[in-house]
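Suppose you are handed a protein chain with no further information: no name, no annotation, nothing but its sequence. What can you learn? This example shows the usual starting point.
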Amino acid sequence: MDAIDPIVDFLFETGILAKTPRSGFYFLGSGSQSVAEHITRTVFIGYVLASMEGNIDRARVLKMCLLHDLPEARTSDLNYVHQKYAKAEPEKAVNDLVKTLSFGQEMKALIEEFEERKTAESIVAKDADNLEWILSLKEQVDIGNSRAREWMEIGIKRLKTENAKKLAHKIRETDSNNWFFSQKDDPWWVNRYKT
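A reasonable first move is to predict its three-dimensional structure. Written in structure tokens, the prediction is:
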């Protein structure tokens, strides 16, 4: 097989993440999200947190955020209840994937670093992962899911960095629709500047 073939296979495999649902929403009773959607916002949060922290390797944080749930293309997403009774083998999934790619060992090292949570970058990346869940839960709170508030409080307790905790407390008190209507006094909202 050409060296390019496994790269193309890998790119198709990453597409599965867009079709893989985050299973916690089943138990929450509302909302939905794919693993790819979760990863996308986690990367943005990782960028923000790494920028707030300042003295860490931002690129490594972003790479960990990008890759942290990659094994779920093969294992699916197992939420906390599922993990208590079913065993996924993400290490095996990573090993099977990376042995086919010339850059696979770098990916494996980043995923392992994320899972070990011994470096400042991995702690920030995990906080980004948890903050994404907290944001998703706050969106559900704001449309009336009372369960999501309790789940959000548990998520906040998982945070390690002070910056992530500050963001979480502000997320808790901010309406998730606020960004959209932040300039609601602008006449644009009434007439789109038409006379």
